[in-house]
Amino acid sequence: MSGFAPVIALVGRPNVGKSTLFNRITKSRDAIVADLPGLTRDRHYGQARLARRSFIVIDTGGFEPEASEGIAREMARQTQQAVAEADVVLFVVDARAGLSAQDHDIAAYLRRLGKPCVLVANKAEGMREGAQLAEFYELGLGEVVPVSAAHGQGVRSMLERALAPIVWPADDDADETPEPAAQDVIRLAVAGRPNVGKSTLINAWLGEERLVAFDLPGTTRDAIRVPFERQGRRFELIDTAGLRRKGRVFQAVEKFSVVKTLQAIESAHVVLLLLDATQGVTEQDAHIAGFILDSGRSVVLAVNKWDAVDDYQRELVRRSIEARLGFLRFAPLHTVSARRRQGIDALWPSIIRAHASAMVKMPTPTLTRLLHEAVAFQAPPKSGAFRPKLRYAHQGGQNPPVIVIHGNSLEHVGDAYRRYLEARFRKAFDLVGTPLRIELRTQDNPYR
């Protein structure tokens, strides 16, 4: 198991193309594109890769370091938190609009911090050797790196420069988790938004006296790992928020660091996603759930504070889970009250089962037989003159399980048929709590 993924923060004034660059780096078009006015003050997080290395990217709103009130002040606080969490800052400026007073303010703020920073001139199509970039050197942040986020020009070179100071783990297969033996430790991350009851739940499992010693203020520390044993099984609990005594958390310091949650998810075998029954499923819950799915980690859902809502609110919570977390239908769902210790013991069988499903072994003869039975029951639909032919299957990986299917014209297999195959394999191997990935590989025609 390798260390945590490094963090890159995108910082700059409004409309310099930070979100476009974020989408280009993460190769996605997620919530950033769908932002509504008034929500741009939030930080947005994504996972990205450079070669075989993974890292986390933070997109921020327009930054006004000297803002003292209103939404601008809230956005500035969000950006400052992102910079504090980052290992490297990408300061994005607009190559076509040129320097502004706000650029100077941001540069002065970054110079005071002394954090590694790369000055990125976006919208620089055709300006690589142009004199238009010379004025940005007066910001005092070193060499200007021209890129075009819209066209992808210069982005890889920019990332290589930004990540060059990072000391990477020696293991090049950091994202491949080996199958543990029965006596090995299961890493369990408890994730969720602020104030959903993560600390209360872990205290109920371990006892508060044990965790008071781990109480440290601040949001930039690493996730706290606590060894735990239950019924002969060994676990390592990863607390993503840190446990603090009441009265010791200042308002200016956030209780919850999204970066720490993403890093804990990557280092875990199973993630317990804790929701708040009094607030339902929020956009941040869905974002964390999506990251869990993208990371391929097993997941168990738990709705805390179930004792604090009536039957009507409970029905609303169930509907919000179905609507916003429908992509996690394979995950076990529990209702608990960590404060009253109700339902928390029932979480452990689901956690163990989810881990076992992620590490399941699928023999090639069994997979091929199940594939042929699925095709015989319902053949893939034709696409024009082509009907895909699925010939055999084998396992391509674990945690999450990967099934590789070989055949002809498989590029014409649609998403609906993929879901059909996934359902058949899930039922056959009794997979619960883990994503299942299906890869289709078309055999080359030697006579083409």
From TrEMBL:
It comes from the Bacteria. Gene3D superfamilies: 3.30.300.20, P-loop containing nucleotide triphosphate hydrolases. Coiled coil: none annotated. It holds the Pfam family MMR_HSR1. One of its GO terms (biological process) is ribosome biogenesis. SUPFAM superfamilies: P-loop containing nucleoside triphosphate hydrolases. The keyword NAD does not apply. GO terms for molecular function: GTP binding; ribosome binding. GTP 2 binds at residues 192-199, 239-243, 304-307. Keywords: GTP-binding, Nucleotide-binding, Repeat, Ribosome biogenesis. Residues 6-170, 186-359 form the EngA-type G domain. GTPase that plays an essential role in the late steps of ribosome biogenesis. Associates with the 50S ribosomal subunit. PANTHER family: GTPASE DER (PTHR43834). This is GTPase Der.
